[in-house]
Write a structure and sequence with these properties.
By secondary structure, the protein is α/β, with parallel strands linked by helices. It folds into two domains: 2-181 and 386-403, Glycogen Phosphorylase B (Rossmann fold); 193-384, Glycogen Phosphorylase B (Rossmann fold), CATH 3.40.50. Helix content is 42%, strand content 18%. The protein is built from 15 helices and 16 strands. An eight-stranded mixed β-sheet has the order 3-4-2-1-5-6-7-8, with helices on both faces. α3 (100-110) links the parallel β5 and β6. α8 (220-227) runs parallel beside α9, α8 (220-227) packs across α13 and α11 (301-308) crosses α14.
């Protein structure tokens, strides 16, 4: 079996959960099939196993486009380039809307069955219009076209499986639920206080950790509101960078500045850069609590990473997070009511922040309970989210669509 992956992110250029997913799925799938990766970037190792071919992104005909939509159009341009050399594949597997046009063209032009993994759904991310402008309409269109054309759609959580069935014209038998996974040999608890010191964190005092991009989806503003109510002896550590827009970058910087002014003594640490994986594992391992305050999260692989490092989790009860975090066992879930079906921000942001803060405080001040949650979290990761089992399930989906001949379904 020959498998072609189309992805925006691939090592060494990985910045989000979708990239982590692809990295590990590809590594495991290479044990089961012949694999080629066509990704956005400068990677180039066509003779390796898996073979990797980088595709230019953002420096073509739309590089100097004066409007936000240029980013979306550049993605479509890269998808054209992905098909310039005819794929020699039995199945093409797309990850994120950036690559969907590439999969559509591979299916239409070359007759290759198409599989799409849904890492997020554009209609549930209205804040993307801040980043893409009218390009958000482009991303929504290409996503819908790909999902409704695909021979199989993989949802990473029960929540997304249901949303796909409700919002898209995808027959029920074409939607499969296969969760994200994690390599528990890479993500495991470590003792590395020197990493904390290097980042300005006091290893002798407890801290709550936020690790994620500066985007409305990840709820960083709600975390900062919750942090303002935490006891003064708890350090606040934000490993946050890669703002979606200048507006949210400015907004977040201002909120962190105000939090620092209200909590003197150096107990607000902002790591405004993407840290190496080894540093992230150390930050997870030493944290008293990891907080995931997302307002939208199809799965939340970041919670698996924290749990694998034996760190208890406090997270919002949205999307796929309840598939990962077991309240009262591996962490605590905070109830979340969105404003509306199309506006995922909390209906009562003050209450949400207050309940986040109370859950964090409860765990930091009860280290025995936090330890039990952490140990249970790692057990859950090892027993239920190994990449080897997940790759076998995905490989079975490939076999099904290949056997079906990739027939076009209307």
């Amino acid at each position: 079996m020959n498998v072609l992956y189309l992805t925006r992110e691939y090592p060494p250029h990985v910045y989000g959960g979708a990239g982590v997913h692809v990295e590990h799925l590809v590594a495991e799938m290479a044990r089961l099939a012949s694999v080629e990766v066509r990704c956005f970037g400068d990677q180039d190792d066509p003779d390796a196993s898996p073979a990797v071919i980088g595709l230019p992104f953002g420096d073509g005909m739309f590089a100097e486009h004066p409007q936000k939509v240029g980013s979306a159009l550049s993605a479509l341009e890269t998808c054209l380039a992905a098909n310039a050399r005819p794929p020699e594949a039995d199945v093409v597997h797309c990850h994120t809307w950036y690559t969907h046009l590439g999969g559509i063209l591979a299916r239409l032009a070359y007759g290759i069955p198409l599989v799409v993994t849904v890492h997020s759904l554009e209609p549930l991310r209205p804040w993307k219009r801040e980043q893409l402008g009218r390009g958000y309409d482009v991303s929504c269109w290409v996503e819908r076209t790909a999902l409704e054309m695909a021979d199989a759609v993989i949802a990473v959580s029960r929540h997304d499986q249901q949303v796909i069935r409700e919002r898209f014209r995808v027959p029920e038998d074409r939607v499969r639920m296969i969760p994200n996974g994690i390599d528990a040999e890479i993500y495991r608890p470590v003792e590395a206080p020197e990493v904390l010191s290097r980042h300005g964190i006091d290893p002798g005092r407890p801290y709550v950790l936020f690790l994620g991009r500066i985007t409305r989806q990840k709820g960083i503003g709600h975390f900062l509101a919750a942090a303002a109510e935490l006891p003064p002896d708890i350090q606040i550590v934000l490993c946050a960078s890669g703002a979606d827009t200048e507006e949210i970058a400015t907004e977040t910087s201002g909120a962190i500045g105000r939090l620092r002014a209200d909590r003197p003594g150096g107990n607000v640490v902002w790591i405004n850069s993407m840290v190496p994986r080894e540093d992230a594992i150390a930050l997870f391992s030493h944290a008293a609590v990891f907080c995931c305050p997302s307002v939208y999260e199809p799965f939340g692989i970041i919670n698996l990473e924290a749990m694998a490092c034996e760190t208890p989790v406090v997270a919002s009860a949205v999307g796929g997070i309840p598939d990962v975090v077991v309240p009262g066992e591996t962490g605590e879930l905070v109830a979340f009511t969105p404003r509306s079906e199309d506006d995922p921000e909390p209906a009562d942001p003050r209450r949400f922040a207050a309940e986040l803060g109370a859950a964090i405080t409860g765990l930091v001040t009860d280290p025995d309970r936090a330890r039990r949650y952490g140990e249970a979290g790692r057990r859950r990761v090892v027993e239920e989210f190994g990449w080897d089992a997940i790759a076998r399930k995905v490989h079975a989906v490939y076999g099904e669509v290949i056997d079906a001949g990739g027939e076009t379904r209307r």
